[in-house]
Amino acid sequence: MTSSPSETANGETEAAEADADAAVEAATPEPHPLQEFADHVAATVGGEGAVVFDTVKVEVDSGDWVSALTTARDEMGLIFFSWLSATDWSSEVQVGDPYPEAVEDRIEVLATVGDISEGRRVTFSTTLGKDSPSISSLVGVYAGANWHEREAHEMFGIDFEGHPNLAHLYLPDAFVGNPLRKSFPLLTREVKPWPGTVDVEAMPGGGDEEESADGPSEENPEA
Amino acid sequence: MVVDQDLVRHLSESSVSVELQTEEMTLNIGPQHPSTHGVLRLVARVDGERAFDVQPVIGYMHRGYEKLSEVRTYPQITTLINRIDWVAGYANEIPFVVAAEKLLGLEVPERAQYIRLILTEMARISSHLIFMASYPLELGAATPLFFALRERERVLDLLEGVTGGRFHPNFNRIGGVKPAYGSGSSTRKVIQDLPAGFLAATREAMDRVLEAVEELELLVADNEIILARTKGIGVLPADVAAAYGVSGPNLRASGVAFDLRKVEDYLPYHLFDFEIPTGENGDCWDRWHVRLLEIRQSVRIVQQAIDGIPSGPLQAKVPKIIKVPQGETYVRAENPKGEMGYYLVSNGNQGPYRLKIRSASFSNISILPWILEGVLVPDIIAILGSLDFVLGDVDR
Predict the structure, then answer these.
(1) What is the CATH number of the domain that holds B232?
(2) What backbone phi and psi angles, to 5 degrees, belong to B364?
(3) Inter-chain contact A17–B317, Cβ cutoff 8 Å?
(4) With an 8 Å Cβ cutoff, are B191 and A5 in contact?
(5) Structural domain containing residue A157
(6) pLDDT in tens, B165-206
(7) Are B180 and A5 in contact (CB < 8 Å)?
(8) In this complex, is the C-beta atom of A51 within 8 Å of any C-beta atom belonging to chain B?
(9) Where are the alpha helices (DSSP H) in chain B?
(10) A16 belongs to a structural domain
(11) Under the phi-then-psi rule, with left for phi > 0, alpha for psi from -120 to 50, and beta for the rest, what region is B45?
């Protein structure tokens, strides 16, 4: 059964891709099967619902954060707390690539909850300002939010009002800064550029001489 | 000899906690302790033999993968995420590459999906076998370790034969599995597929795993000491587990028949027959037993997949430099430890703009302060072990 992929296989792939493209074009006006569920959740909790790449995402006002998730838990059966985190939207980034176009500076808080029967899940999202972002804690709704909020607090500098213990989770107590903010540099790479950007790194304290001195010893280890 | 019957009765009725005046003290467990599966520290306040207010201290293994992945390209990131849950490194790669494929709109060839599925289930078997080895050991029974690790080695050998790595396979590529032809600096066209004899050897190994599971069940399930130490210990109700985000076998042990393999479509699990084993009481015993039963189900899946594996290409057509279109998605998978998922935000470049890693063990051990409240000190170890976490999966 260990057959090898061959030219015919590649031909099939191309055909399959063409089919897929055609299918996408034909299916574009059709609403996503999850759209109805997204609209239903959005209408129940009071927000904007969308399906992005098979992920149901519902945006709510930051003031409605706790009430929206309480409704989701009590009325929609979304009792499973999957995760909470954030995205730092910024046009100025210290590491990685920025968005090609300018984005509005903001912190987006995300929380995914689901049920434990049919596999439905919703990612709730809300927007906070960059300067001293603050939002009510979800610990009273989902006990599991405790550690996730501590992580988001230290990584993004978000203040979760009403959290019982907003201490550092991963970072040392004395650590200053919020590492997952886009303004936070990757300090290792500030000190030393990426290894591998040049094929051969210069030897410390010497250049060609050491290389030439090492050369023969590799060929003749006994020398 | 005259025996004071009143005294005898008094002694037999009294319990330790009533008679002894104990002082509250703080007990530090870890960060180096065999039962912590890495470096986890527990600070417990104990009063006599009871523990109160147990606070886990984590972060000793924090490697900052979420930040690092913002400066890496998609193919580079699979090497990082192998190291999250290192006991099942292969399974970590799947939801990430599926998330990238979703944004790219790629259709993965069937054969590649089958290979992914077979190797994922073998990773699950090896991960659960580690649990079968280590958990009785933590309770004082050394023998099951040899039975379980022997079979795990067989499974890992097969994984290594396909991927080249026992722990860190780095075998998945966006669009499929490892390229069918030699690439990079190699100009020679090397055809790579499953190694010859892999399917037959896997079929044999699966039979051996089933035999070992029988042996393990006989060894452990009839052992009165193990039963006494696990039955009714560390009971976790389903609603509490859900609120804390406890997932995977730990949730199913609490009687919830919920398995992401049945409800998500990241791999073609709908093609295969398998059951979702559940526990009844949500105690340490059920958490052991559910994992034992899951090994049998994984073997069933692997056997069916071997029978039905189609031929064909191993990779969809992808450009040499992969730029993932703008968008965001959350893809989650049923990993051996529970729900593992990646929330991927792409800005159209070679690396993610943001990658949130949802790991199973992180949420699974966030239950510790709740579940260890008021338990006996020796039960701390029994409960810790039963949750089957890996610190790399906690700290990321």
Answers:
(1) 1.10.645.10
(2) -65, -35
(3) yes
(4) yes
(5) 30-191
(6) 888 888 888 888 876 454 444 455 555 677 778 888 999 999
(7) yes
(8) no
(9) 5-13, 16-19, 65-68, 74-81, 89-104, 110-138, 143-163, 198-221, 224-230, 238-244, 249-252, 260-263, 284-308, 360-365, 368-371, 377-386, 391-395
(10) no
(11) beta
The count of domains in chain B is: 1
Residue B31 is assigned to a structural domain of this protein? no
With residues binned 3-state (H G I as helix, E B as strand, rest as coil), the percentages for chain A, rounded to 5, are 35, 20, 45
Task: Give B243's contacts in chain A (Cβ within 8 Å).
Answer: 79-81, 142-144
Query: Alpha-carbon Rg of chain A, whole angstroms?
Result: 26
Domains held by chain A: number? 1
> What is the least distance, in Å, from the CA of A222 to any CA of chain B?
32
Mean pLDDT by 10 residues, chain A (223 residues): 42 48 56 83 82 88 91 90 92 81 89 91 91 90 92 92 90 87 80 63 51 40 40
Q: Is residue B335 part of a domain?
A: yes
The minimal CB distance from B67 to the residues A54, A80, A179 is found for: A179
- Residue ranges of alpha helices (H) inside chain A are 7-27, 35-45, 65-75, 145-156, 187-191, 208-219
Give me the half-sphere count of Cα atoms (radius 13 Å) on the Cβ side of residue B173: 20
Domain region containing B86 = 65-371+381-391
Taking chain B, what is the end-to-end CA distance rounded to the nearest angstrom?
Answer: 67
